[in-house]
Each structure stands twice: as C-alpha cells, then as structure tokens.
Amino acid sequence: MRVLGVDPGLTRCGVGVVEGVAGRPLTMLGVGVVRTSADADLGSRLVGIERGVEAWLDEYRPELVAVERVFSQHNVRTVMGTAQASAVAMLCAARRGIPVALHTPSEVKAAVTGSGRADKAQVGAMVTRLLRLDAPPRPADAADALALAICHIWRAPAVNRLQQAHAAAKASRPSSNVPVRKVPR
Amino acid sequence: MRVLGVDPGLTRCGVGVVEGVAGRPLTMLGVGVVRTSADADLGSRLVGIERGVEAWLDEYRPELVAVERVFSQHNVRTVMGTAQASAVAMLCAARRGIPVALHTPSEVKAAVTGSGRADKAQVGAMVTRLLRLDAPPRPADAADALALAICHIWRAPAVNRLQQAHAAAKASRPSSNVPVRKVPR
C-alpha cells in the first residue's frame, strides 16, 4: 500500500510518501514541503498548494491520501488556513478518484509513539526509526506528513475490519426502516 | 463591473452574479445554489463544489469573485466546512486569474441594509429591492451571495481609493528600511 500523507498548512504543507503493509518494515519513498509565501494573496496561495500536491500525486501515484483532520478548537488564528489547505489537498485526491482518509493529530501520535500526547520531537524520532532514516525529517511538518502515512497504513486493517463487520451486521438483520408486517396464513 | 458573490457552504453554497457600478441601479444576472449531499464523503463534496463554481464561472465570466470571509469564532461545528468550501471557490477563481475579494458578514450586512447586525430577512428584503426582484431569492444562501456581490460593487471605489492613497504615500516618502546616511561635504 502506497500512501501520501499531508500535514496541511498554507505556509508549509508537509508531504510524505510511505509504502508498506502493517506488520512489515515500511519504506519512505519521498518527503518534502509545499511552501507558499505569506505575502501572496490567499487565492494565489491555494493555487500554489494545488500545484504542489498535484506534482506529488503525479510523481508518486499513491493509492490513498491521508490528511490531518483539522479541529476548530485549536490554534484559532491559523486554523482557517489549515482548513483551506486541507480542502485543496482533499480536492486534488478526490478529483483523481484517490480515496482520502482523515486522522486526528492524537490518532497519529498514538499510532507512531504509543501516546496521543507525544511532542514533535518524539514523533520525529519514531518516524526516523520506523523508516530507518539517518535523521529526523525537517521541518516538523514533513515528519508529521510521514507519521500520517504510517498511521494510515497501520490503522487501515483495523478500520477495514470494522467496516466489514458493520456491513455484515447490516446485511444479516432486517432493515429497521421496513415495517415487519405479519400476514395471517 | 460583473461580480460573482459566493456564500460558501458544503451543503448549500450560494452563488449570485450582479452587474453594475456604484451609484447606478444594479442588475442581477443569475442566482442559485451549489448543493452537495451530506451523505457523500468530504472529498467528493469538494469536487461537487468545484464543478458547480466552475460552471458559474464558465457561464457568467465575472471580473471578480467576492467570497464571504470565514471567521473561526462563529458556528464552531460548521466553520470547517465553510472554510473548505470557500477555499475551493477561491481556488477556482485564482486559477483563472480572476481577482478574489473577501468581505466579512457584517460588512455585507452594513453595505446592503445600513446595519452590520441586520438579520437574514432584512438582507433578503434589501437585495430584492436593490435588484428589483419580485420576491427575495430562496434559500437565504442565494440572497447572501447576491448581497456579497452588491457589497463588493459598492465598496470597490472606496477600497481602490484607499489602496491608491497607500501606494502614493509609500512612493513619496523614503523607505524606512534604508538608513539615511549623512555624508559631510
């Protein structure tokens, strides 16, 4: 499974491609940052993000794009830009028919470090170890993008099993929307 | 001046095209809503918004797109979807080189009703009167999109004068970044 992780942001949008399956060593195929200038107007910045993400999709052809789920509770000042950059990344993937998965920051931290409250340094250190890199990817946004991709690859089997169980349960029971009518013989 | 107003939203994205200049009667060229299903996944919904906005740009060829500026303070639950839909609208415009202007909800209300705290009914009533329509456009998102376009057309001369004054002031004074060095004769 090849996953492009995207840590969305207008100034620095982290991108990282990881290949592998849960339970086996993973391989990093590429990592980087799509940057746009804070001096540019918002529309141009979004076009910059689109071009950057398109270039990564063209080069690596991922099967899935994992994007950080943005919450409005945190960092009120920057959350709008983060939401807008994430929208562009999701749009680029969905337009090509590539599935998009969202993971919360604490899911990502828990997946790679064992703790949902891990700090940036811990995430960077675990990403470095898991992908057998020489040093933590810089900036932190690039490491976070790799962590998102790793999180997705590791969580995917559990998520798939859950979805299959739901579908099976749905198929085996009568729909609650259809009234059961007792017809006398 | 022909302006496409966009009241961003994932479920209902209001769109309205107004033509005219400040101080003269305005004309509505079109109004509508781009809808996406709440059952669809987020990526598909963003693709739906993109297709809808592209169709309006193709049909009306506006000179400018006016989008509501999204604040994170309000409606915390829906603000993420609003920010994401607005990003797609801005991206569609910027990709074609069409300038994007952002106006806050209170700027729009003040422009069309005289009060920044006007309610939806007052905005709808004034839009109906200003564009000489038979009835307020429904749903409210459509009326809000027209109000955004009207707001932009009316505010544009003042905004332009401000920008020109800034540019003139900047050109006439020495840059504060360059130290003034006194050379003895």
Automatic annotation (TrEMBL), chains A, B:
Gene3D superfamilies: Ribonuclease H-like superfamily/Ribonuclease H (3.30.420.10)
Enzyme Commission number: 3.1.21.10
Stored PROSITE patterns: RUVC
Entry coiled-coil feature ranges: none
Domain of life, source organism: Bacteria
Keywords, sorted A to Z: Cytoplasm, DNA damage, DNA recombination, DNA repair, DNA-binding, Endonuclease, Hydrolase, Magnesium, Metal-binding, Nuclease
Gene Ontology MF annotations: crossover junction DNA endonuclease activity; DNA binding; magnesium ion binding
Stored SUPFAM superfamilies: Ribonuclease H-like (SSF53098)
Amino acids binding Mg(2+) 2: E68
Reactions it catalyzes: Endonucleolytic cleavage at a junction such as a reciprocal single-stranded crossover between two homologous DNA duplexes (Holliday junction)
Function: The RuvA-RuvB-RuvC complex processes Holliday junction (HJ) DNA during genetic recombination and DNA repair. Endonuclease that resolves HJ intermediates. Cleaves cruciform DNA by making single-stranded nicks across the HJ at symmetrical positions within the homologous arms, yielding a 5'-phosphate and a 3'-hydroxyl group; requires a central core of homology in the junction. The consensus cleavage sequence is 5'-(A/T)TT(C/G)-3'. Cleavage occurs on the 3'-side of the TT dinucleotide at the point of strand exchange.
Family: Belongs to the RuvC family.
Protein name as annotated: Crossover junction endodeoxyribonuclease RuvC
Organism: Streptomyces niveus (Streptomyces spheroides)
